[in-house]
Amino acid sequence: MKAHGTIRSAFEKGGRFERLWPLIDAAETFFFRLPVRTAGGTHVRDAYDLKRMMMIVVMALFPCMAFGTYNVGYQFYASAGLPADHLACVLKGLTVIIPLYVVTFAVGGFWEVLFALIRGEEINEGFFVTGALIPLVMPPTIPLWQLALAVSFGVVLGKELFGGTGMNIFNPALVSRAFLFFAYPRSISGAGVWTLTGGTVVDAYTMATPLHLGLEPKGGIVAHLAGNGFDFWRMFTGLEPGSIGETSTVAVLIGALILILTGVGSWRIIVSVFAGGGAMALLCNAFAPSDASMMALPAHYHFVMGGFAFGAVFMATDPVSAAGTNAGKYVYGFLIGVLTIMVRTLNPAYPEGMMLAILFMNLFSPLIDYAVVRLNMRRRLRRAAG
């Protein structure tokens, strides 16, 4: 303990390594429970803090991580027509997932430490969840150098330039994905990027996602998807090409349950995203020109396709970039669902929609909260005047 105190004093104010104080502070607060007590007036004693909240989010993401790892290996062997047991699929998936996470946390951690040292502030834990999310919204074929650029863009321009964790306007993980979508579209769009293939792809296998297949249906849209092997239950379970962590709605719902029961994720936003998506899908169904149109796709199919469920649970609920008022959360989530279905059905050039919908509503969430507060103030003033 004495040696630890001597080392610590060298990093404190006036010490030899004063400028490096954020590094030792981060190590202490991550690995130890420090004997720091609040003094003064009435306060709440609670062990719950930002680190614990981040750990709960990562726990909620673990089902998506685990299934995504398995699915990468499963698609690899299925594309080549090779038999593989569950262990082989997991091991193959790990060879893809581990490098993605190493690059993400190495690059993101570098920028977090650099900005903390420049500002002389504590190293914030905000990147912990962002770093866990970024690989899950990427295709398994993404080049590592492009991932490094995307992480740098998301952390620096999406968060640090706004002041760091808690100050960012947009979700940093989605900013990283958006950077790749516009800077390197061939690496994150099209039918060929969603499956890690080994050798020649067998004729019976398609690398396209259900959303890509829905752009050019032959016959009814539902029958067309089923004819290509994508019925509702397969898309619900997630054994299909797609972003690493987004394919399994089952895994996402397990994560949603964890977030809601612990109070970390807003159930208002999650429910509203699905309500908005469902309402817009029903409206599109009513005006669909034919059963072959993407507008004819039922709402429950939209929920299990692409990143709809993952975005609703893990991206839209970001407490920093989402609306903060209870009423605002309903409006914010509902409009995300509406915009997502609009993009999917009315824009043939972009089959997904969830990423752009969330980023767009991130921009308007302060305005939504402002409108809610102003309406509440007017209502209370009228009540007081009466």
Shape: globular
The ordered H/E elements are HHHHHHHHHHHHHHHH
For the secondary structure, the number of strands is 0
Strand content: under 5%
Give the class from helix and strand content and strand pairing: mainly alpha
Q: Tell me the domain tally.
A: 3
Explain this structure.
The protein has 386 residues and is an all-alpha fold. It has helices at 2-11, 21-31, 50-79, 86-119, 126-133, 144-157, 172-183, 210-213, 221-227, 232-237, 249-262, 267-286, 299-304, 308-315, 326-346, 354-385. The protein has 3 domains: 2-31, no CATH class; 50-187; 219-385, no CATH class. The protein is built from 16 helices and no strands. α3 (50-79) packs parallel to α5 (126-133) and α4 (86-119) runs antiparallel to α5 (126-133). The chain is globular and about 75 Å long. The relative contact order is 0.10.
SSE layout and pairing:
Elements: H1 2-11, H2 21-31, H3 50-79, H4 86-119, H5 126-133, H6 144-157, H7 172-183, H8 210-213, H9 221-227, H10 232-237, H11 249-262, H12 267-286, H13 299-304, H14 308-315, H15 326-346, H16 354-385
Helix pairs in contact: 3-4, 3-5, 3-11, 4-5, 4-6, 6-7, 7-16, 11-14, 12-15, 15-16
From the structure above, extract its key features.
16 helices, globular, 61% helix, 3 domains, mainly alpha, 0% strand, 386 residues
